Amino acid sequence: MKEKTFSLIELAIYYIVIFFILREWLVPVMELTNTGFLELIMLFIALCLVLSLFQIHFLISGLIKFAYIIWFIVFVYGGVFVLSAEGIDFLFNDFQTNIAAVLRADWLHITNPFRTFLFFILIWMLIYLIHHWIVVRMSVFYFLLLTVFFVGTLDTFTEYDGSFAIVRVMVLGLALTVFLLVKRLLKQANITLDLKKYLKLAVPAILLVFVMSSIAIYLPKFSPQWPDPVPFIKSATGQGGAEVNGGGISKVGYGENDSRLGGSFVADDTVVFLAESETKQYWRIETKDRYTSKGWEDSGYFQGELSVFEHQQIIETSLPVGPEEDTKTATVEVVNPYDFIIQPYGMKSVTSAMVSVLPNLEFMLSLDTEKIVTYVDRAPTELPGYTLEYSKPVYLYSTLKNPTEEIDPVLFERYLQLPDTLPTRVRDLAAEIVGIRETPYDKARAIEMYFKQNGFRYETDNVAIPSEEQDYVDQFLFDTKIGYCDNFSTSMVVLLRSLGIPARWVKGFAGGDVIDNHGSSSTYQITNNDAHSWVEAYIPNVGWMNFEPTIGFNNSRSIEYDLSTDDYEEEVLTVEEETEPDEKIEKETEPKKTAAEESQFFENIAKFFEQNKYILIGILLLALVGAFILYKIRRKWLPKVYGKLYRRKELNESRFEASFLQLLKLLEMKGFKRKEGQTLQAFAKEVDSYFENGHMSLLTAAYEQTIYSKDASAVNVLQMRESWEYLINQITS
After folding, report:
1. Where are the transmembrane segments (predicted)?
2. Among 45, 272, 621, 669, which has the minimal tally of Cβ within 10 Å of its Cβ?
3. Is position 604 within any domain?
4. 207 φ, ψ to 5°?
């Protein structure tokens, strides 16, 4: 009884240390993902450790753990009692939604409750693995190594400060290593100690660990002797956006600092948001009006003045809105949260389901940039999703060709600004492009087409950065002619302003890719790769109108050609060279929708394999290498596997013959193989000579007696069982 109590106390000490080490895993994850309920997750870990400590039957312990997980999910995400009708309904609906998403391989629509469920299962498996390391292997070296690597990586590449976390992990890990080392030595020596003697061995070593750790913390330390590799690693992996001016590589995506444009960037397919709408369109975020010769800044023309709009209230911007009867809705599901609204052209209002829990929700429109930020109690707030009402403006071609409005230069002074250092040849080029064209629309259209017809190339690699004396636009127009959206859009704005046409630079996202169809609407997936910039020019009589000068991108404006003209064919031809118009895509894919829906599951699987082919190839190669290694060392591990299987089958009279043949198979795996023509008795003597006993000869005699006499009852099964188990243990040791 004392020995059992001692073992229980010993194991409890191990689990207490493991509990605090696991806490060091959870804390940074909770901090970096802004996830709450750390105490409840730690309670689950404690529950698992307690159930493992008292060796509760796996069925009972499994039910308890599963019940806790279900309670946590319903409590956190449903806010209702788990056994209530609402709680059961919540679980059933969530289960149904996620099973459907998994079968479609639609990983983006896996819900947060299901992700939490998988996270708990991962913790469950991890604790089971740790129990195996402690009780069977009596070593936590690999677990300790992984923990230090995990915390160190987060400390290096994220905002988490893991300095003291690593110290705590090392102290706790070394203390646990001491306990397990003492236990392993005692077991090897077959020595049994009581608690007092055990502590006399372990405590001095543990005190030494704590003393040496304390000394190491407070001793003076040399400064780093090698250069910090982190900036280089971040730059190589595309996180060196701040280093662009020094020749680094940026990662594509929306950012707020555009004062220094230029340089290469790397792709990033991280999903930003999903949009469900009837047509593909551009998603506007903000405009900038001051060109500095190196990039764009906000002039602060309105000195930061804001307009406040409430939930479902009409939002008034400087952009035109289409007719009331053409009003449509678009639903935005934000995956990578921002605290601003993503705006379609012709946006009228924003509706959010969060207003029920955030009654003070407001939308603040900056008059300087027209960026709309969501606020709750005057603090910027991220919304997980919202619905937009919009009516896309339609421009009459007759109005564009026959402007009657006189543009007031004073009113649009901010949109005609150009730096004094702008080279004269930029202005000369603008005049040359438009030639004899008279209307602002014709001039803007000529500049838009200029880039597509004069040897410019869209590239994201090896894009030049202007030197201190160079102008960003001048370098692109005359020296390189290579760049991406920032180069094209900025150049068009500058060329328009050179001609006295008010223009501004716009940032946002392009339309993305269709990932699902449902009736008249489609779901578009917009990633960081879709971050984009384009142009808005003020055209008399119609107001601000969007233009797309970047090669490979399709403009999203709608023009009604109420006059006979060749411009319509020209515009459609230009678009078809790059991407098919939204309307045409819908017409062409309409007959295929049924087939696409029927094969959606297989298409998603194919897409998954295409996107992750290199990872899958790597995993396959590792699996092949692992299988080859396992095959080469099969004599070491295969007998142990078979030994465990055979021990589960009790040796009796009816199974004696089969058990003996299984023993011969195990011996062959171990390297003992009968020679051709060798008798069983001669083979048994060789085995007995190796193991220095006579158990194999006894078993062989009993086997031959069973075979030849056809009477297994004459065999002393109890004695044979002892010999059989002894040989199994020797072979698999």
Report:
1. 12-30, 36-54, 66-85, 117-135, 140-158, 164-186, 198-219, 614-631
2. 621
3. no
4. -60, -40
